[in-house]
């Protein structure tokens, strides 16, 4: 557990990360929905997997 003097910083950092992630996801989904031919949802789903793949590759055993 974090020391008491850092609780606010950690709480604000987590809140900022969650809000920024939600904003980024909404922006990407808004942009890819305009793709013609029904490829928007596929691209959105593929882009959602990019951070997971990055974490998996960069994981240090």
Automatic annotation (TrEMBL):
Broad class of where this protein is predominantly found: membrane
CC per GO annotation: membrane
Alphabetic keyword roster: Membrane, Transmembrane, Transmembrane helix, Transport
Annotated compartments: Membrane
InterPro entries linked: MFS_sugar_transport-like, STP/PLT_plant
Domain of life from the UniProt record: Eukaryota
Signal peptide: none
Transmembrane stretches, start-end: 12-32
Gene Ontology molecular function terms on file: carbohydrate transmembrane transporter activity
Protein family membership: Belongs to the major facilitator superfamily. Sugar transporter (TC 2.A.1.1) family.
Record-given protein name: Major facilitator superfamily (MFS) profile domain-containing protein
Organism (species): Oryza nivara
